[in-house]
Amino acid sequence: MRLSVASLVVCTLFACSTDTDISDRPLFPDGFIVFQAVVLDGLTGDAVDPVDLRVQIGHHLLPAEFANGIYDVYGIPDNTGVFVLADSPSYAPFVAKVTIDGNGNLATGDLDYRFFNVLMYPVGTSPSDVTISVFTADGQPVDGATVVATLSQQPIFVPVDTPLFPGVGILPGSLVAQTAGGGKATFAGADLVLGAEYSIDVFGALDANGVFLVPSQNNTIRIGAQVPEIVVFLDRPVLAPVAISANNEDGAIHGNLVVRFPYAVDVCSQTIEHTWSGSGGDTDFDGNIAGPASITPVTLTKSAADTTITLEESYGAGLQAFDPNDNLFVTFNGVRLKPRGAGDTSCRTLNSVELRDTNRFVSTQIHVNQP
Which of 34, 176, 236, 312 could be disulfide-bonded to 256 (CB atoms 3.0-4.6 Å)? Predict the structure, then answer.
């Protein structure tokens, strides 16, 4: 059955109701939503038939009922996130995540309709196969890696206007291939959509030390619009060091800075020094706010497992030798770290090292004396 876009608009405006009996269907406190959809060929605008359309809520699949060119799925609770799944012979599978929400004023047993269009794309429209060549950063081909091509942007060849919902996101099933014969993986043109853009990811590639490699740049290819072969270079991932704790979090007086990591870290830079400041000035009014020289050599020590670093000034009496009644702070400078085994691109200055979550960072300033 073929249904034009124009007739679909008219049908939607005038409800095109069905005789479906809902008396035995579960009701929800705020009524329930009816998911309605038409399924169109994304290249021609013709209705796709037959289609197996389902809505997935958690682990439950709700099948669609078909009448008058429209697919209905009943029994969706208000304001629920669902997956819409559609399959049809010779078409790429459709998978989209949407939130089905009602108008908020439903009484028990009422129906609220939410309309969507589903655009499916025929496979086999690509003029040629696509080859992905995978190399390490130094030009060595990588065999045995898994290459995944995921459609990231679909072509829109048919008009999609209100009241048809302007698309719910097209995510056909990913294509998977293995590299072999010099780091090459090939996707058959029969499985690709002409005009579509695919993102390319590579998984499972290891360097000589067993470290997983990742693409060093984003890789996309538009089918039919560029040379059907792209080269993907892999490198070690950037692994920013993350700290579990630092002893300066408590605001108390300390003579050194201790930072603890969940894994071993290496020091990228040994140019370590500290500066001091009397933010409160001569708070005890004894005429003395003297401290060490503004730049003083600092000792960095690491724990046996290299998961803890300690920074302290290198001469005997320690930072407590500051005037004990002034409000003084010491800031350590020049410390750059990276996770053990990471490349130099992973080096981070200590005052930017993440502390447990994305909103807090290790400060290299410690409170030395407090009046």
Answer: 312
